[in-house]
Amino acid sequence: MKEVLVISGKGGTGKTSITAAVAELFDNILLADCDVDAPDLHMLLKPRIIETDIFMGGKFPIIDRDLCIKCGTCREVCGFGAISEDIVVDPLACEGCAVCSWNCPQEAITMIQKEAGRRYYSEVGPGHMVHALLKPGEENSGKLVAEVKKKANAIGEEKSYKLLITDGPPGIGCPVIASLSGVDLAVVVTEPTKSGIHDMERVLATAKHFKTPVKVVINKADLNEENTQALREGLAEKDIEVMAEVPYSRKFTEALREAKTIVEYAPESEESRAVRKIAEAIGEFAGIGLKEKG
Amino acid sequence: MKKIAIASGKGGTGKTTLSLMLSQLLSKDKKVRLLDSDVENPDCHLLLDVVEQKSREINVFKPLIDLEKCTFCGKCQEVCEFNCLLVMPKDVMYFKELCHPCRGCLLVCPEGAISEGERKVGYLHTGKINENFYFDYAIMDVGEARANPLIEELKEGIVGDEDYVIIDAPPGANCPMVEAVRDSDYTVLVTEPTPFGLYDLKIAVGVLGELGLKCGIVINRSEEDDGIIEDYAESAGLEIIAKIPFSREFASLYSKGIIEENFFPGLADDLLEFFS
Question: Which CATH number does B67-112 carry?
């Protein structure tokens, strides 16, 4: 199975709208949503959940007040300033390293794990989908991403899928690095804005760091022709292929407001033709064709 | 001093745009410090003329292992919750991207073979736009996983004599976003009138609820019908502070790196009225 990951660096460049529309053009693929703290793909693909798993997060110290003598050792050894003078743990500052627990002379601190989110395995129009939702404010999004990928790989093997398309998180940090693991091709969606280009450069460098091949989609391409031309030239110099240019259009928003993908909402539009081009290139990469029209 | 965080849940809704507008408007007669805490992809500096900028490295702890003293007993690997140490018969491997610098390995080593080391994870840039408008940002090195140490260091640059500190938060609702907003007096959630905007807004409101923080909403790319957000705001008891109208011309100026704080006159009035 080939895994294609859609990322962007900057948020809001159109990752999810494009991923969902591309998916809609296939009828036998696997999907994954690795944006686990603000997942949106399910709103367009409307999954029917088959299986739910509880995701246990990092560890958290529970202090036994009967044993604690308030000696302050835990506070001294904590590298994150997470323990107050009256020995109360700040859940936001605590990283779950357990250093307090094994340094406590009274053995008063026990580390526990709590539910930090859920992972879902679902049926969708184009095939199956693995997605998740992290609880508000929880850490460990990288770990949950790894769990989503583990499940997707298992399903891919079980059902002999040839293509997995993964909607990635924004940024270049921990969840993106976790998403990049094992990916055969990263599709970077950018926009011809100063910040879009800057963030694309950083996500390209990240993909290069982890030796992942990349191709680029320029979304909102006609918003700034000068920047788009600079993008084309810069990418050609780096030998990075531009898979398609998608026009800046309100049709995506209109489609979204009806919870539809662009190919369902306006199948004959210029926007849908650009999406088709991306889908064809991805299909070719994985050695599968698009679904029959109609 | 008032600390105002600008966050969103969903990316690309206009956090940076609003942060810059607000900083420009408030700094006309108050002292403002803008912190770009989206250290993975900071963009504010691309849209500002920063003068007198100073830069320095940001470092975090890493274990220095003295292989002469090490007996390869494996205790450091045992206590590390993040699996960043692998003890082999004659060597110890360290996986920096997994390390949350807790110093557990240093504390546990019975041979005293581990000492305090440092490694660079990014840069901190401090500067100003004018006498009233100070601006700092941090940028994380490519390949690094953890944004939080950079955000913490960035926030240490708050002097205390500012009238307003504006924090441009990273997208999402996980650790870096929490770190950015956690001690703010007020958080503005920027959203857009689409199902994606609404869904991610609800998640962000959930996070702020967990943190016990006050928040309000700004609707970006506002259309004739913003009912999708307005209905939710009403049911959740959240104030809609202002609306930024949808405008291709504004988007086109943004693409060139221009944020004109008075582009929408009504908007500037709404923001000033709310935050003054």
Answer: 3.30.70.20
